[in-house]
Design a protein that fits this description.
CATH architecture of the domain at 299-483: 3-Layer(aba) Sandwich
CATH class of the domain at 299-483: Alpha Beta
Number of helices: 15
Number of strands: 17
Structural class: alpha/beta
Length: 487
């Protein structure tokens, strides 16, 4: 393969149009270029089409119009958000073989190198589905790295990673010599290594490009919006003034009527010149999760299984959780946090019991509790309490930016961020007695997080939560912390 020069453009979009459904565009006349070795952030609201743009880059999707060009047929690898369900029964070794058309003789050596690079230490005969969320996140990244491609696409790479994992990933990406484009809602992570932003506007469906670190670009966008709003306010006042004069002079004769026509034309020109201010930076509405009326010990835990050196160990604990009690389950990736939550939800954990009759609201980090074949409307309807009408359902959904046009779509067609917001809408409609939240910030736009944190903090039922996002955790008052790495 011919090597590209250091400053050569390696990827270009030229007036690209793309849509999944007729008359519902994702991209409209999108143009931008990326130079070799650049580290770029791809921004946009949940559902704006960021993952679709990645698929246009890889060729999995084709544009309706325009052209996507990759210089000298540069190779591309993608670290996706989640492991495909059909891959969960594969061993780690079998999973890596899928990266190649023909399995290389030195596969084990290559696996060792990329697993070391992302600090992934698991037996290669272990099934992918048995790995923790953080271990799966590292596996997805190492799967992309083993392909040694010219362009690396990372889709929410920090999801499920503990702080040590995030720090390791940042160090790796800073030193990585090739082109990287990242989708992430982790602002601190992005600010550490990206040098520019590609912004996908959810309403104009255009692409905007910015140069600078992440926080500088966000500040620039904010100031631009403020300027646009001020300009529109001034134009709006002038338009009203001219229209009032048009109404006055239009009923006069001669030159006054000509003046009225001139003023009317000026008002029309001003309306055309009003800036289409960005509307997509919407935040979900404040919400409350009503609690089930129930009394007693909601959850009782007398022992918990932790993983030490890849081997399970039972540790005795004595926890009794009642209403208004919030428990944070902490510890490094791979220690058994998500496994504990799943066993609690399933009712198969003989050392942890949920009080009979308690409605359990479960936010799964991989959305495994959602039926991907259901439509959004069917999913919401399936957990409705008796007496809740459709109008209430739609109002709750709209508060999470789930509008009418999404109701008929299958959950499998939603972005990961939209699945997350759907999960919260379900929790509100469910009115649970117990919330079990496994990485509830995964895939969620950072603008929504303060609203979600407040709702969890204000929930007067019982909460058991796992999260690796310190800023989010700090906004919630916990009665107790169960650190599986220390018991």
């Amino acid at each position: 393969m011919t090597k590209t020069m250091p400053e050569e453009v390696i990827l270009r979009f030229d007036e690209v149009d793309f849509e999944y459904v007729h008359d519902k565009p994702i991209l409209s006349g999108a143009s931008f270029s990326v130079r070799q070795s650049a580290k770029i952030t791809l921004m946009g609201q949940n559902g704006a089409g960021k993952s679709s743009l990645f698929k246009l880059i890889t060729g999995e999707l084709k544009p309706k119009a325009g052209q996507v060009s990759v210089t000298n047929h540069a190779s591309i690898a993608t670290a996706r958000q989640v492991v495909a369900r059909e891959d969960l029964d594969l061993t780690v070794t079998e999973y890596f073989t899928k990266a190649f058309d023909e399995t290389p003789n030195d596969l084990q050596s290559r696996m060792y190198k990329v697993m070391t690079a992302v600090n992934l230490d698991v037996p290669t005969e272990r099934k992918v589905g048995e790995l923790s969320g953080g271990q799966q996140a590292r596996l997805l990244l190492s799967f992309a790295l083993i392909q040694n491609s010219d362009i690396l696409l990372l889709d929410e790479p920090t999801n499920n990673l503990d702080q040590a994992g995030i720090d390791h990933l940042i160090e790796f990406l800073v030193m990585y010599p090739k082109t990287v484009i990242v989708i992430s809602h982790d602002a601190d992570f992005l600010n550490c290594f990206t040098e520019g932003v590609i912004y996908l506007d959810n309403f104009t469906h255009k692409i905007e490009t910015y140069v600078g670190d992440y926080y500088s670009v966000v500040l620039e966008i904010t100031k631009r919006i403020e300027r646009e709003q001020m300009k529109n306010a001034q134009l709006h006042r002038s338009i009203i003034d001219r229209k009032e004069k048009v109404n006055f002079f239009a009923h006069k004769g001669g030159k006054m009527r000509q003046l009225a026509k001139k003023l009317k034309d000026e008002a029309a020109d001003m309306e055309e010149n009003m800036v289409d201010v960005r509307r997509e930076d919407r935040t979900i509405r404040n919400f409350d999760i009503e609690v089930q009326d129930i009394v007693g010990n909601i959850v009782e835990i007398d022992a918990i299984k932790v993983i030490r050196n890849h081997e399970p160990q039972m540790k005795k604990v004595d926890l009794k959780l009642r209403k208004k009690m919030h428990l944070l389950v902490a510890g490094p990736n791979g220690v058994g946090k998500s496994t504990f939550l799943r066993s609690l939800v399933s009712g198969k954990n003989e050392h942890a019991k949920i009080l009979d009759g308690v409605r359990v609201g479960y936010y799964s980090q991989d959305f495994s509790n959602l039926d991907f074949d259901q439509t959004v409307f069917e999913s919401l309807t399936s957990i409705l309490l008796e007496g809740t009408d459709e109008q209430t359902l739609r109002s709750v959904a709209a508060g999470f930016l789930i509008t009418g046009d999404l109701m008929g779509r299958k959950i499998s067609e939603l972005s990961e961020g939209q699945k997350g917001l759907l999960s919260f809408a379900r929790l509100v409609l469910m009115q649970p007695g117990l919330l079990i939240l496994d990485e509830p910030t995964n895939h969620i736009n950072f603008r929504h997080l303060p609203v979600i944190a407040k709702a969890i903090n204000d929930f007067s039922g019982t909460v058991i939560m796992v999260s690796h996002m310190p800023d989010f955790v700090a906004q919630i008052k916990f009665n107790d912390v169960l650190d599986l790495g220390k018991i």
